[in-house]
Structures are given as C-alpha cells and as structure tokens.
Amino acid sequence: MQMPEPDAGVIGRRRELIAALRAIVPGEGVIADNAELGAYESDGLTAYRQRPLVVVLPETVAQVSAVLAYCHAHGVKVVPRGAGTSLSGGALPLADGVLLGLSKFNRILDLDYDNRCAVVQPGVTNLAITNAVSHRGFYYAPDPSSQIACSIGGNVAENSGGVHCLKYGMTTNNLLGVELVLMTGEVVRLGGKHLDPAALDLLGVICGSEGLLGVVTEVTVRILQSPETQRALLLGFREVEAAGACVAQVIAEGIIPAAMEMMDRPAIHAAEAFVNVGYPLDVDALLIVELDGPPAEVDHLIEVVRGIGVACGACTVQLSNSEAERKAFWAGRKAAFPAVGRISPDYYCMDGTIPRRALPQVLQRIRELSESYGLGVANVFHAGDGNLHPMVLYDANIPGQLEEAEAFGSDILTLCVEVGGVLTGEHGVGVEKRDLMEVQFGPADLEQQQRLKCAFDDQGLLNPGKVFPQLCRCAELGRMHIHRGQVRFPELDRF
C-alpha cells in the first residue's frame, strides 16, 4: 500500500508551518513533539502507521477556517480526524500533512424537541446524543458498535450504520444539515432543520465523502421518539445456511425488524466468553432479531418471527421478557469485536455488503477461503441488509501473515462485488479498499468521482491518497484525450 510521495519542500518548511499554526491556534492547540505525535500515527486500522508532520486541534470554526485557508495558500495537505475509530484507514496521517483533529468540538449546541432534531459539534460521540435526549423519550437511531467512542463527525464522513440501520437507516437517512469548511477556508451550510431543499443533494454528497471534500464543524441530526416496546429473540441454527434462509423469509413476509444480526460459531463463542450473557454454544449461527413498536404489534410479530425461525430449523429459541434481558442479548453482539481480540493476537475486520439471497453462497466461499489461506475467520454482520463484517484472524508477529490476511480480505471484498454487492457498507474505502475500487467501478465512474472531488478541492489537498486508486490532478482530468490524432466521438461539435 503506497501513499503519495511526501513533498520535501513542505517538510523543509515545518518550523515555519508550526509557527503559523500556533499563531492561529494558540496555547496547547498545536502538537509538534515527535513522541506526542505517536498518539496520532494511526486510526482503527492499526496495520498502517505514519506520524503526521504536525497535529492541530482547533476549538472554533474561525480557527478551522484559518488553518485550511493557510494550508490552501501554501500547498499543504490536510487530513481531518475525528475520534480515530475508522477501520479503513480514513484518518491515516501523511508525513507532509497537517492532521486536523476535531476532538475539541464536543458540545451539544441545541436540542429541538418540537422539530425532533439535535444540533451538535462533530466531536460529540454517537451515544452522547441518545444520552442527552433519552430523559424526554427520544434517541438517535444509528448505533455503530463503537458508539461509545466514535464521533458524529466521523459518522458523517463514513455514513456509519449500526445494528438498527435495517429499519431506521444509516447516517445519511438521519442527517438534516451540516456546517462545512472548504479547503479554501470558506464556511458553507447545507441543509438544516427544514425539510429537504429542492436543489442539488449536496448533503448526500458530503455524507460518506470520507473527509475528501471539506471539514464538518456542525451537524444537525434527526432524533426519534423511543418506541413503546422493544423485544428481542435469539434463534440458534445448526447450519449458517438455515439462518440465512430465515433472514430472507422474515423480510419476504413483509416484516422489517428494528434489527436483525447474525454471528457464526467462532464469534458466538468469543462473545459468550467475554460477556457471559447465555448465548447457546452448540449452534453454528445465531440470529438476534429485535421488534419494536406498540406492545400488541410487537408481541404478534415476535411470535411470527419465532414461527419462521422454527420452520427454518432453529434449534434454540429465547425471548427477552425484560429490558435487562433484551440489553443482555445485545451486549454480546456489541462486544463482538473486542471479544474476538481475546482469541487472536490480531484480526483484520472487513466490511462488504451483499444481496441477502447471496448470504449462504458467500459464507460458504469464506469458509473455503479460510481453509485455503490457513487463517481463521469470525463472522459478525447486519444480516437484514447484507452488511458483512468478517474478522480475519492472524498474528502480525509471524512474517507474511499480515499480507495473507490482506489478500484474504481482498478476496472477500471481490466476492461481494461478484455476487452483486459493494465494497463497503459503512466503514468507508479509506486506504484499506482504495486499490479495489477498480473492481467495482470503471474508469469513467472513477473519473467522474474525481471531478466531484476537484469541484470542492481544486488542489487535491484534503485527505489525499484515500479512496481513489490513482489520484489525478484536477487539471489532468480536464484535458482532452487524443489517440492517433483523433479525439473521442469526433462526430460531435467542439466548443
């Protein structure tokens, strides 16, 4: 994995850059000591590390604007960073770049219950929004497993989801507006508390843009009224294929659960050993299905789903009969990632999305790949919408195993595209999937995406080296291609 060649000229001006940044962000807002920079050398994708040239931690929008304007004027690259929980290397620093941390933007600015929205700064954690409104009977629906730590700005950058995204959508479905600082330092607002504007969907462009288009300094999100009742059930299956068939049948019946998650045997055993919530250990697949709404509806649908599960071969059925029991069911699923960390020195967490109908086929192929590579794998995924999170188990201390794990992961993601899926569901492309983009997109698609990038960032200074397998300069994208003296489509008039 190669990053853009560091600019020796910028590195040579490091002292000058640090002095300029300290003038903009005084006090302890600029980190330049080499030892202290080590805390920022990677994000959640710890296989890749690079210490930044300097870290700046602004506290105001005016400071963010001034930092970006200075870097734009002097040709300095900038990598925005939230909580650093990204699993795709989206916040991987650059040796010749400024790491712009938004951790000090951690205030909730407005809770508007009448309009059912909250206005927060990007450093506010995902779970903090729900905690702030729960006393009034509201909550924020997207709930990634890292919600206790991940920031809402990072959720916007990656279009994060969570276990309840099946019914309530991803970040983009719950995002109403943002304040955005462009690379030039210009501050713009997109959306807000009002209904969707009738113009271009620029808010949809920003959500999931992975820090390539601008730096988000304020976020307006939709909050929902908490459901009257929430109940969950555990369905254990002897075969993963039977669990996949159950997922398809539930959706086919027109039932949209609040959440529908699946874990395979290695993940079940790891989670149970970690949290001891009573998961069955004699099954190959475990479904957690949650229904919410009015009590009568929930009780009815729980019985319907239970019947579907039994008909599909469920050998274990457990219903939650209290809120504590429901939370216990989810405790293992939420802790699955750290739980797997206890059974393997290292693991490589993937993120791909497939059509639900392809679930049995893909899981069988993952097992075959596991045997071929000689590496274990634990599967945890959002079964309802086909978002897979295979965790490839390896030991980085064994020479060559990291490379094998990456190759295994690439094969899984390529398989996702082959069966009609996509490379990522919520973790983003970053550097992890960057060189696989050509598996899903053709040259024309990638060029069009890069033109959009150039419209926001004309010098390509924001988070370069991410997403695009080969980043062209904006001027190069505008050039006319001539082959053997002929332009493309010569019959068309040129203006």
Which keywords apply here?
single chain, 495 residues, alpha+beta, Uridine Diphospho-n-acetylenolpyruvylglucosamine Reductase, domain 2, Uridine Diphospho-n-acetylenolpyruvylglucosamine Reductase, domain 3, Alpha-Beta Plaits, eight-stranded antiparallel sheet, five-stranded antiparallel sheet, 19 helices, FAD-linked_OxidoTrans_Type4, oxidoreductase activity, flavoprotein, oxidoreductase, FAD
The description of the largest β-sheet is:
8 strands, antiparallel
Record field, number of beta strands? 21
Average per-residue pLDDT, rounded, comes to 92
Radius of gyration: 24 Å
Structurally, the number of domains stands at 5
* Strand residue percentage: 15-25%
* End-to-end Cα distance: 41 Å
- Low-pLDDT residue intervals, each spanning 5 or more residues: none
* Helical percentage: 25-40%
Using the alpha-carbon principal axes, give the shape. globular
The helix tally amounts to 19
The secondary structure category is: alpha+beta
CATH domain class name of the largest domain? Alpha Beta
What oligomeric assembly is this protein in?
single chain
CATH topology of the largest domain: Uridine Diphospho-n-acetylenolpyruvylglucosamine Reductase, domain 3
In CATH, the architecture of the largest domain is: 2-Layer Sandwich
